[in-house]
Hints:
Elements: H1 3-14, H2 19-26, H3 30-40, H4 45-58
Helix pairs in contact: 1-3
Amino acid sequence: MTENWIIGVLREREAGVKATELCRRHGISDATFYKWKSKFGGLGVCEVRRLRSLEEENS
């Protein structure tokens, strides 16, 4: 999953699409969606890329 895609899904939710509909439409589990929401909610694409980069660096 790309950063753009994840942020796009989260923005759809902010626009009012129900989480269950998003999960069905994009083929992701509810758990995955809520994990992304808690981790990336409110961040932009650049910030998500930076966060992922730091996580990979620390692994």
